[in-house]
Amino acid sequence: MQGTVNNVVWSGTWVAQRLGVELEGDEKLHDLLGLALRRNPKRAHLLVSNVLGKHVPQSPAVVYGQGFELGERVRELLGADEAGRAVVLGYAETATGLGHSVADGVGLAPYLHSTRRSVPGVAQAGGFEESHSHATSHLLLPEDPALLAGDGPLVLVDDEFSTGNTVLNTIRALHGRYPRERYVIVALVDMRSTADQGRLDEFAREIDARVDLVTAASGTVRLPEGVLQKGQELVAAYESAQQQGVRAAGAAAAATRVELHWPQDVPDGGRHGFTPAHRERLEHALPAMAERIAAALSADARRVLVLGFEELMYAPLRLAGELERTLEADVRYSTTTRSPVLAVDDPGYAIRSRIVFPAHDAPDDGPGERYAYNVAGAGFDAVVAVVDSAADTPELHAPDGLLAQLAAHAPHVVLAVVPSYVPSYAAAPDGSVPSYATAHDRSVPSYAAAHVPSRAPGRPRATERHSMLPEPLRGPAFSSYAPDEVGWLLQDLSDARLEAPTEEREEAIQSGGAHYAESLPVEYQPSPAYQELFHAALEASAARIAQAVGVVTETVLAERSPRPVLVSLARAGTPVGVLMRRWAQHRHGLDLHHYAVSIVRGRGIDANALRWLAAHHDPADVVFVDGWTGKGAITRELAQALVEFEKAEGVSGFDPEIAVLADPGSCVRTYGTREDFLIPSACLNSTVSGLISRTVLRADLVGADDYHGAKFYRELADADVSGAFLDAVAARFDEVADAVESQVKELLSADRAPTWEGWAAVERISEEYGIHDVNLVKPGVGETTRVLLRRVPWKILAHRGAGSDLDHVRLLAEQRGVPVEEVPELPYSCVGLIHPKYTRGATGADGKAVSN
User: Fold this and answer.
1) What b-and-e string marks burial along 270-293, b requiring 16 or more CB atoms within 10 Å of the CB?
2) In a domain, 257, yes or no
3) What is the pLDDT of residues 86-110, one digit of tens each?
4) What is the mean pLDDT of the chain?
5) What is the predicted pLDDT for the residue at 422?
6) Residues in domain TRSP (predicted)?
7) Would you tell me how many other CB atoms lie within 10 Å of the CB of residue 463?
């Protein structure tokens, strides 16, 4: 039925009745789409999405959720390995925000969108035409040439997949330059005709690649004969009679300007590339930016529109999402557009009103009209216009400009300007424009610099540099482990002064003045009572840990490599790697190589350590090992870092799948257990990890050709229990062997795909407790213990009924004056909350000063 949707008039009824256009397909198709008419010589009708956030103001949660869910489906389709190597490409202007949301859902994928705005100094990586569009030329302007040059899957995102011409032409052009084995096309709706549906398989055979399609709904538009001419006549008649949207000149706009304090070096969108590391920094900054916008709104604003600007869709969408979560108001989101559409004030028509204003960003194709739809007459108390700095021009503020037009329809207009991101090499000293082939060699682009050390001009590949790198450090000169137990691909910083008081570190980290890896916390010296707890916990859990060690080791041997090279992520992964090596030796007589390397959240894995490993071992044999997963941040960090390393160094084969002892966050598929129980090695710091500190990455100590650093605390030898922990667990190997064999058989035939439920739980807790920063929520026994030992804790959430596994947590919390709150239905045994927005003198949940 085309007349109503859920007892509401369908917003395509007006067009359907007058032109005979029929929309057929999935039940939810009419909820997703309406119809309008546009002045276009190639296509009369316009499919108007109700969930895209372009023409129809919509809840930002709905808009973002549509793209994110599609991205999750792509991740499920590709699997963890290929998803970690994927790149997402969105189409300007309509799908820039949708594509970015899809990239978020994929999880580890960098994002790029095409653009119609050329940027001086940035050369093209390609371009293509959109046959049915009113503005056809698309440019591809990635800052990092390697972004499109990899061989991982390319995910192409558009709002609709109609004829398929635009997407297939894009793939054909890129495939000729950067061939790859797999493409995924993503769209909100698949509207191909029956004749077009067979083209995709033919095209895949033509280019000898796999091409998949992921959509939210599918259907067909049936057009009667002569619809184009009839539609053009209808548009002309209505525009002549109504003269809708004619600009009304007025006084210069007096919008309230808000300073967002946009995070430095985070791009405003995907025009030049946007990476997971950029995403993490933006997530951290969003709550404060939304607070600044909210403060500029009047207290009685009950209906608020956040209006983005043409290709600038993602940044205003995320700001709108934060406002929607925090304001007691109806928040909606849409953007301005180049697309000319007829407006008809009828409930059965998708475009009820339009505002017309002059372009205000000096577009390449010259001045012209721009539009904002369904804003006039919508009853908004306030409109927050979000533009980039390139569009903050006199035309924006002119009497007939966008701000003045908005002011005629809303009592309050707020302007927020996002700085336009320009690649680091774009402004050449001599004013010249670099060619695409040489742009990367003129300087290191910030895209690459933000993740892992990129290949500087003339820098050799990894295989040419390994002789420059020192051999691994080994005990007893570095660590209390035996020399054959582990080789540390680190540099010894034992003589450097790196420790800082906990409160000073927390204040510097949260203010953005320092990274957590630039200093070390003062090593916790356990009290006699705490030491007794450690030994009691070790005695009680040794067999349980031994079984988990056996399960994860046997899984690795069965699925990954018969002679794996174990590479632990220092520091928590190192005791687990040693135990896995001992299991392989005890049960199978295998003498496995084992190394420890540094990985730093937000900065990636030690690239020099990877170069050494690639020069001495087959990367395909390397298995990365960690102690446990919390929300999965390190899992994501490793996957992205390996993608960047392959692009920068040309070394492939490293598998990003981490093997862990415990996976309570359901972030990996290779694990010993998914239960969240006490692993005694989490109770202590260096004294259970070979007397080695957490790793350090600081520019004045770690050069481009150096490993990351760490300290060897020789002076703590009397308190060292590293060997005792290993021996206690290894002594139980034989008694758990049968249980290990049985469990491994079950696991090898089970569906172990990560669900990332831990990440979802952390996001929920972050919002429920008003923290708005997932990095301050540390789930699981191990991470909670780290919060109590290293950070400034705010409160501890404990699963109601949790037993002795949390005895040490309760003792540490009591010593630090931190409240423990019992919570039902917590997916972890406990969760540690770091004090949000900490400064020295901050108070805890009970109003008392935080103590150390």
Assistant:
1) bbbbbbbbbbbbbbbbbbebbeeb
2) yes
3) 999 999 989 999 999 999 999 989 9
4) 83
5) 86
6) 268-405
7) 13
Q: DSSP states of 122-144 as a string? A: ---SEEEE-TTSSS-EEEE--SS
Tell me, yes or no, whether 207 and 355 share the same domain: no
Residue 133 pLDDT grade (very low, low, confident, very high; cuts 50, 70, 90): very low
67 CB neighbour count, 10 Å cutoff = 29
Per the confidence metrics, is the pTM higher than 0.85?
A: no
Q: What is residue 279's three-state secondary structure?
A: helix
Q: Which structural domain range is residue 410 located in?
A: 251-423
Identify whether residues 205 and 260 lie together within a single domain. no
CB 90 within 8 A of CB 270: yes
The DSSP symbol for 309 reads B
Q: What is the mean pLDDT of residues 379-386?
A: 97
Average of pLDDT values for 520-525?
Answer: 65
Q: Is residue 39 part of a domain?
A: no
Same domain, 126 and 194: yes
pLDDT value at 558 more than 80: yes
- Total number of domains in the chain: 4
591 lies in the same domain as 635: yes
In a domain, 639, yes or no: yes
Q: Does the N-terminal peptide bond of residue 656 adopt cis geometry, omega within 30 degrees of 0?
A: no
CATH number of the domain bearing residue 805: 3.30.1330.30
Residue 449: per-residue pLDDT:
30
Phi, psi of 662 (to 5 degrees): -130, 135
The string of pLDDT tens digits covering residues 144-153 is: 878 888 889 9
Q: Are 12 and 34 a contacting pair, CB within 8 Å?
A: yes
d(CA 772, CA 836): 9
350 and 410 within one domain: yes
Residue 17 and residue 12: Cα distance in Å, rounded? 9
Does residue 557 sit in the same domain as residue 415?
no
**Is 431 part of any domain?**
no
Assigned token pair, 759: 């990440």
User: Which amino acid belongs to residue 466?
Assistant: H
Mean pLDDT is lowest, of 466-480, 543-557, 561-575, for 466-480
- SS3 call for 680: helix
E strand residue ranges, 616-715: 622-628, 658-662, 670-673, 709-710
Give per-residue pLDDT as tens, 700-715.
788 888 899 998 988 8
- Whether omega before 563 lies within 30 degrees of 0, making that bond cis, reads no
Span 410-423, mean pLDDT?
A: 94
**Residue 338, CA distances (Å) to 52, 362, 525 in order:** 16, 13, 64
Q: Which helix (H) or strand (E) holds 597?
A: strand 594-600
Same domain, yes or no: 745 and 764: no
